[in-house]
Design brief:
Pfam family, one: HET
Helix content: 25-40%
Number of strands: 8
Strand content: 15-25%
Distance between the termini: 23 Å
Largest sheet: 8 strands, mixed
Protein name: Heterokaryon incompatibility domain-containing protein
InterPro entries: HET, HetReg/Transcr_Mod
Amino acid sequence: MKPKVRSSWKYHYKCLPDERKSFRLLKLLPGKGEDPIRCELSIEDVDNAPPYEAISYTWGEPADKISVLCHGKHTIVAIHLRDALRRLRHENASRTLWADAICINQGDKKERGHQVQIMGPIFERAQRVLVWLGLGTDFDSGAAFELVRSLYPIFDALRYPSPNVEPPDLEAHVACVAQSQWEAFGELLCCPWFTRVWILQEIGLASEALVFCG
């Protein structure tokens, strides 16, 4: 359910000086656990922005909204984004991020259109892309990631074989993987994030990507 916020308590966006080159960055303020999400926005030039990380996530159901604090005022975001910000924030230091639902004025259709056009450069210029798959409460995300970690060096060796080095036996390794790990991996791939068309751009342009679940 979308929370109701009085106008005097609501955060009001400042206009971007150039919607085709300017964008906002989010300073996620320190906190831990279920502390309220507090953040501040700054306007930057996409070609000369300070270091930041971009979040790739799913919005979730339209009704699943919650309020977070921006400059002490309320702004409405998806619960999925709130969960991501809780997971990504530091306890004792701020973190500079880009997240579309907060950094773009969702009430300004014209701005949204212009910001979508520069989304490619935004992800390309980010230090890294932080992929949030969700809380992962319905499956063992740890087992799924452990399987990925164990398979990665094998696929890497097969992709880039070294001369005079026996290639790893993928079939033998796969045969040793527990059924529970395969099931957890299958559940991981069912996360809604993998169904988004935009991930092709967000991950394809990333200089580095880190994946978080739970």
